[in-house]
Specification:
The complex is a heterodimer of chains A (231) and B (246).
Chain A: H1 6-13, H2 16-48, H3 52-66, H4 70-80, H5 90-115, H6 119-127, H7 132-162, H8 174-185, H9 188-217, H10 223-230
Chain B: E1 5-14, E2 18-28, E3 33-37, H1 44-51, E4 59-64, E5 67-68, H2 76-82, E6 83-86, H3 98-108, H4 114-127, H5 143-155, E7 161-165, H6 173-188, E8 193-196, H7 200-206, E9 209-214, E10 217-223, H8 224-229, H9 234-244
Parallel strand pairs in B: 3-8, 3-9, 6-7, 7-8
Antiparallel strand pairs in B: 1-2, 1-4, 4-5, 9-10
Helix pairs in contact in B: 3-4, 3-5, 4-5, 5-6
Classes of the chains: A mainly alpha (231), B alpha/beta (246).
Chain lengths: 231, 246
């Protein structure tokens, strides 16, 4: 039995190689969530569109992506597609896979948020002369956001951890770098605990941010909080 | 005098089989107050929503002043910015304060500055007796208060006409008066108004004409006094006896 190595643990806790890996994980999460929200909005609007073709395409897309594991998708994109002449770098393949996944899941979250805004709100917005874009921006989206934020926050939390799957196609993120160091030093437990702590740190930070966002979009719905704000 | 609102042979279907509006015609002159009543399901709410294009129609013609409502090239947002509308369930924007509710159309649609919009809002709040509630959210207000804010939100756009779709139907009895008072005031100032309502007291007080609808048709369109004294159709007689009988 080797026992726990405190010195090794603290050394890796501040190791720049690992820290860079954590930064890559964070970057991948921010990029795929941002692009995923945009793409998710497009898929959601397509799904809600009165045109059957658009709605069917969107349905097929979410069915396909949500029905297959990200791990399989990444391997197909990175390792499989070159067989038919389509080549992506590791970063490109990772981002494509993550964004496609987030878009599929987020589109359903966004759709339910938009559908939760009562019909009277769109009539009221139109009645003061708003265009459809203005109505979406000033009336529907802020109200949908209140419904969307909690499950969206869940997705961000999930995405922070899901990026680790990209280590399988040698994306140099937190888990991959942890594994590389393990190959060198064999401090398996210490290194995995360090990795776990970094994940925990990032998900906790997001938790705090999410709470602030929820408070912002919750205004007008919580009588006590609103009254306090007016004092 | 050029009429303010004209509906000519308006037809509307829900789906293929159900015709909600059957060749409805109606004219409202500037400054006139027209009350529309009738049993539920008679099409009166649908009719009033057609006037500002919130409900599309399949036949006939609608115009407001010199703007065509029906027709493919109509700029509906522009038209609606000139026609105020008040709904049965108020439909204030719940994520905005009272002031923000009244300002949003002024700044985003009419292009007024924030300062101009806020000044106008303050004056309107005074007028509907809600000055103390400027910074509150709709959820903090009673139904009657919310409806007065909804009226202020519509008036903020300086409308040429106001449409009211059962403005007091969702209110507790003790709140109906505070809303009707604002509407009576508005009528006396000469606002052109189309009002769908069961409040026959309001109709008696300020209406110029009463339109009675049933089964998607305009059954009667008569001066107020005539309507209450001697309704022409049997259906109107039955309707009046039902709602005035207690």
């Amino acid at each position: 039995m080797k026992g726990w190595n405190w010195d090794g643990f603290f050394e890796y806790l501040t190791n720049t190689y690992i820290l860079e890996g954590a930064a890559v994980t964070l970057g991948l999460t921010i990029a795929s969530m941002t692009l995923g929200v945009v793409a998710g909005c497009v898929v959601a609007l397509m799904r809600m569109s009165p045109f059957r073709v658009l709605s069917n395409i969107a349905y097929f897309y979410t069915w396909l992506i949500r029905g297959t594991p990200l791990l399989v998708q990444l391997i197909i994109i990175y390792t499989g597609l070159p067989q038919i002449g389509i080549k992506f770098s590791v970063l490109e393949a990772t981002l494509i896979g993550l964004v496609m996944n987030e878009a599929a899941y987020l589109s359903e979250i966004i759709r339910s948020g938009i559908s939760s805004v009562p019909k009277g709100q769109s009539n009221a917005a139109r009645a003061v002369g708003m265009t459809d874009v203005q109505m979406m921006r000033y009336v529907i989206a802020p109200q949908a956001a209140r419904i969307i934020i909690p499950p969206l926050g869940n997705s961000v939390n999930g995405c922070l951890k899901t990026t680790s799957i990209a280590s399988i196609i040698s994306m140099e993120e937190l888990l991959r770098r942890t594994q590389v160091l393990i190959q060198e030093k064999f401090m398996v437990l210490e290194l995995f605990v360090v990795a776990a702590l970094y994940y925990l740190l990032m998900t906790t930070a997001w938790d705090l941010i999410q709470r602030r966002i929820e408070r912002h979009f919750g205004r007008g719905y919580d009588i006590k909080a609103d009254a306090a704000e007016q004092r | 005098m050029q009429p303010m609102i004209v509906l000519e042979d308006v037809d509307k279907w829900y789906g293929k089989n159900f015709q909600v509006l059957k060749s409805c015609s109606l004219t409202v002159s500037p400054g006139e107050v027209v009350v529309i009543c009738g049993p539920s399901g008679s099409g009166k709410s649908t009719l009033i929503k057609c006037v500002n294009g919130l409900e599309p129609v399949q036949g006939g013609r609608i115009s407001v002043k010199d703007m065509e409502v029906t027709g493919p090239r109509t700029n509906l947002p522009k038209l609606r910015s000139h026609v105020g509308m008040v709904f049965q369930h108020f439909d204030l924007f719940p994520h905005m304060t009272v002031t923000e509710n009244i300002c949003i159309g002024q700044t985003r649609v009419l292009g007024r500055t924030q300062a101009e919009a806020e000044a106008k809002t303050a004056a309107l709040l005074e007028r509907v007796g809600m000055s103390d509630h400027a910074r509150k959210y709709p959820i903090q207000l009673s139904g009657g208060q919310q409806q007065r804010i909804a009226i202020a939100r519509a008036l903020a756009m300086d409308p040429i006409a106001m449409l009211f779709d059962e403005p007091t139907s969702a209110l507790d009895p003790e709140m109906i008066t505070e809303v009707l008072d604002v509407m009576v005031e508005l009528a006396k100032e000469g606002m052109t108004m189309m009002v769908v309502t069961h409040e026959m007291g309001f109709a008696r007080k300020v209406a110029d004409r009463v339109v009675f609808m049933d089964g998607g048709e305009v059954v009667e369109d008569t001066p107020k006094d005539e309507f209450f004294a001697s309704p022409k159709s049997q259906r109107a007689v039955e309707f009046l006896s039902k709602i005035l009988d207690h």
